[in-house]
Structures are given as C-alpha cells and as structure tokens.
Amino acid sequence: MIAKTRRIQDSKKILGELPTVPAPAPEFLFIATDNARCGKADVFIKEGDHVNCCQLIGMRHAAFFDQPIHATCSGTFVGYERHYHRSGKLVNFIKIHNDFKDTMDPSVKERSDDEIKKLTKDDITEILKNCASVGLGGSSFPTYVKFQTKNKIDHIIIDGIECEPSVTADHRMMLEHPEEIIKGIEIMEQAFDCHNALLCVKKKYQDLADVYDAELARHPDCGVKLCRLKNFYPQGWEIAMIKGATGIVVPHGHLPSEYGVMNVNVTTAYGIYLNVKFNKPVIERNVSISGDGIVHPANFRVRVGTPIKSLLDACGGYAEPEKKKVFILGGPMMGASLPNDDCIITKTVTSVIVLNEEKWKEQPCIRCGSCVLSCPVGLQPVQIMNAMKSVPVDKARVKALNPLSCMECGLCSYSCTSKIPLLDYVRRAKIIAKLP
Known about the structure:
Layout: H1 2-16, E1 20-22, E2 28-32, E3 40-43, E4 50-51, E5 56-61, E6 66-70, E7 75-84, E8 90-98, H2 113-117, H3 121-130, H4 143-147, E9 155-159, H5 169-176, H6 178-192, E10 197-202, H7 206-217, E11 224-229, H8 238-246, E12 261-265, H9 266-278, E13 284-290, E14 298-303, H10 308-314, E15 325-329, E16 336-338, E17 351-356, H11 370-374, H12 381-389, H13 395-400, H14 411-415, H15 422-433
Parallel strand pairs: 1-14, 9-10, 9-12, 10-11, 13-17
Antiparallel strand pairs: 2-8, 3-5, 4-7, 5-6, 7-8, 13-14, 15-16, 15-17
C-alpha cells in the first residue's frame, strides 16, 4: 500500500508539470441525453439534421430544474448510442458526425466589457442557465440554481485545491488561464455585490502562488485574494475549505449561502467567464490522464463528447496490455469505477485513471479504529458495515448511525488495514437511510 501511494503521489507531481495540450478531435462526438441529476430529456433535432457548434439541441429535466443540451461540434446528428457516463451508468448519447468546421451557432456573440458591467444578477443568472453552467469540479450541480439564492453573500470562495491524487486538471487550468479565472470571479462579485473573493489553493503549490501574486498585482481593485490552505485530504471538501478560509462552519444539511458564502470550483469560474463574455456554453475542458496502466500521462484540453478510447490512444495506449485494467473517472478516492473504457468525456470528467488491476483479499476487521479516526465527519464506518450485514437490515439502526452525513471521501476504505471496502457499505446504508 505504501509503495502504491508513493506511485500515485509521484504521478501527480509529474502530471502537474506537464502543459495542457489539445486532444485529437474525434470523428464522432457523443452528448448525453440524461445524467446523474437529470433522468429524462427532450431532443429538439432529428436524425440527419445538421447542427452548429454550441447549438441548443435538447433539454434535460430534473426534479426542480431544467438543463439545456448543446452540440459541442458542428456536424450531422446520426442517431443514438449507449455508453458509460461519468456516474458509472449506461446512458443514451446523441451521436454527432463531426464535420471539423466548428461552425459556431449565431447565439455565440461576444459582449463588450461595458455591456457586461450593466448586467444585473438576474441577467447573469439567466445567461448561466441558458449556457448550462454546472459545477465543473465534478458536482455537476447547476450554477444558475446556486445564483438564485436570496441570501446576502459576504464571501465568494473559489475552490482551486484539487486535493485528490492523480488529478491536475484544475492545477493546469489555474497556471494557464489566470486572467480569465480572475474575470470570471469578478463577474460573480458583480452578481452578488460582494467585493470579497478568496481563491483557495494548497500552501505547497508555490507555482500557483507565484502566478496569482503576479496576476492579482495587475488587478489591484478586483477584490480577489489568494488564500493558501493546509495540505491535507479532503481540504477540497467545501465544509473544510470554507472553515479554513473564513472560519465559518456550515453544518451538515445546510447550504453555504445560508451563512453568506458562495463557493464554486475554479474551472467553473473560468466557464462563467466564457458564458458571460461570449454567451458560449462549455464545450471543452481540461482532463488529466494518468495511472500505471497507460504508457504516457498527459493533460489534455478535450472536447466534451470525446470517447476516452481516443485519449488513451493519444497517451500511447495501454502499458502491459496483457494485464486487466481498472478504469476510474475522477479521482482515485471519490471517482467512479467503470467496467471498461467505453466511456464518454462529459463536462464534469476531471480525469481518467487507468491502473493495472491488483487483487486484494478482504480480511476480517481487527477493530483497529483507523476508519473512525480518519473520518472527517466523525462517523463509525465499521458500525455502519455491521448494521448493513445484519439480516434483515435494521433501518432504525442504520439511520441512527447517520450515514447521510458521509461525504464519500473514501478515507475509511483507504485507511482500512483489512482492505474492507467500507465506503461501499456506507453508500448502501445511505440508500437505506433515505427510505421512509
């Protein structure tokens, strides 16, 4: 385990030094009709139709919000296919034959700085809604819904911590696009009439401090400060980040906005700039490719809708192809495991990790308490496991153990000396706890 951990950390160090390069454009792009938050959708185009890049082609529907679907290239709608989504589920995808012209939809128009300054909070919220802005750190929660809060915002927090191993998409974004990120934060300040924004990074990243000390010196009146937080996992958890940056404690089950805090991921801030400045939805994003199962790690700028197979080919293919691979979308601690590489890059895929499979044999619990000591929310994962193993499962006992407060950081499984997949039990317990 120690050797494996060291390889993961070394991988992140190597990745962080690799510049982001454009990923090869695929012949076909795939746009999900539904996702983890939206269970159904209306599609506005029919097979054979030509579409423009950024054209509105459908609408996803969730319980309390709608989410526009945009084409991420120009080309021809040729039908539907099922592929794995970042949630780990098989979903329907709209298949577009890329004409490689990137003919932009007429809705994509640049706004002048003077036009942007005249926008109200409602104007900006409507733009984000129409551009389908979502949390690009992986949450996929609609940004416009967060902007609809009626609470007074005193602190704007930008999450640039990216504490998961083997993921450097946000790190490279921050190094390579500081001006656009600052402008995105300024748009948020304008929307909430709040001139107090904290850009949060880990203390150990001196390269980010150097870049943003210089960038903020060029924008002395922007109201943005660099906030260097402690180097621990899960520092990027919003409750830990907000407490570290402001001292404010947001209780479980409450929204940060109730305590005067608005927080977004740093790549989301970059996306907000594109949405408002160019009326352009996010059609590409940074994706890290790493793991001992591929030949070369890489940081790519990827068109949304790209099959990950094409990215793996661009990394030189599989290392030791005779070995079975493990595929993880997102970080190794909180990402989704997939059965194969038949998956599509969506807006919220931060990384693809390919590992050579290693067999671990689960051992009996030795009551060492590692899972309890490592839990950032103070749960007792082993007790939750025992409750889930009882037959029949006692719902009252499961609910009393409060599994719904779990933020699924994975530290219980990671720290378990017996290699018990504790997080899997907790996830199942959360389902039981939601039952009436």
